[in-house]
Please model this.
Amino acid sequence: MERTIDWFARSPVPSLSDPSAEIALSVEYRGSTVTDGWNVGEVFRVQDLADVPLLADLPPDQAARAARWSREVRVAAGDMVVERWDAARDFYVIIDGEAEVFIDGDYVRHLGRGDFFGEVAALDWGSGFGYVRTATVVAASDLRLLVLGPDRLGVLIHACPALGEKLQAAARERMRRI
Model:
């Protein structure tokens, strides 16, 4: 419990006080800076994001930002991607493959290409509050995932309110099931 509290105390929370920050090279993010630079070995293109329903409506500049900020994670079939009660806050989008969602060992749903998870933990619910993982996700086949950290996801949500609305609606629905 102490590790979780310490982690929350150190975690950045999205905050963009200057509207021009959307196009800046770095974004102030409550005491830290999110650099809008290219990832080493970038693997996602803007077109990859346009093929994902959740991200398809991002304006071109924000889609380019999301492509730069994301990283790829590959998970073998049968391996756990996230575990319930974990305090990590990354957000995941399935680019290829399938996964199964469980709560306390009970099957909840199947996820496939274009589906996402981790939004409940990744979203800032106000005053820096975030949830721990609410479910366990296991790869049903080999997975290729697009992953965004909560700070960068927060910047995208601020710049694209429609994305935030979609994620909050999904999070509210999923919270009802716990």
Residues 2-176 form a domain with the Jelly Rolls fold (CATH 2.60.120.10). The longest strand covers residues 91-96.
